[in-house]
What we know:
Order of helices and strands: EHEHEEEHEHEEH
Bound molecules: flavin mononucleotide
Radius of gyration: 16 Å
Largest sheet: 6 strands, parallel
Low-confidence stretches: none
Mean pLDDT: 95
Number of helices: 5
Helix content: 25-40%
Amino acid sequence: AGASxxxxxxxxCGSLRKASFNRGxxxxxxxxxxxxxxxxxxxxxxxxxxxxxxxxxxxxxxxSFPAPVEAFRSRVLRADGVLFASPEYNxxxxxxxxxxxDWASRAPNAWAGKPAAIMSAGGxxxxxxxxxxxxxxxxxxxxxxxxxxxxxxxxxQTPPKFDSDSNLIDPEAKEKLKQLLLSLQGFVLRLKEA
Length: 194
Ligand code: FMN
């Protein structure tokens, strides 16, 4: 794969609610990428259709999964990298995201060797505590998270960082988000060369 090939990033949101700020971060990331970053495309991958993890739903291990799980796993596998938008639920990763992670971790582990970045919008710490739990989970999954820049956003700040449609409107946050995406792109390219 040459460096001129477009990198594909799978963007996964841990919140399922319509007005999710974390989903808003993904919309913003897609726009920033399309408008001001060349050679990379971000695709939103919806985890809402996934059933709750239950290995009784698997056929022969590693061969068959329920259709929505199969579809999700193959989108992760095809991606050159992963962008997580991770809300903080009770100081940790939100259950829908953990569920999606667990499904794609079933052998063969779809996360193995993937470069990844995390962004989060949440309460006082901007969802930060979920980020450190996600990084810990990534150790066993063999996910390679970029360390810098870190992107946390406190949703309770004034003036508001999001508009009434949960779209990111803060210029400084958008610039930070762009730096996160550029860092992920650089890391994906370095891993491809290696
Ligand atoms: N916010 C925090 O900052 N820390 C928490 O520990 C935390 N726990 C939560 C637990 C639950 C079950 C829910 C529903 C929300 C919690 N929140 C917490 C608030 C969410 O971070 C906040 O609602 C955020 O906007 C969720 O992301 P979303 O807008 O993408 O849905």
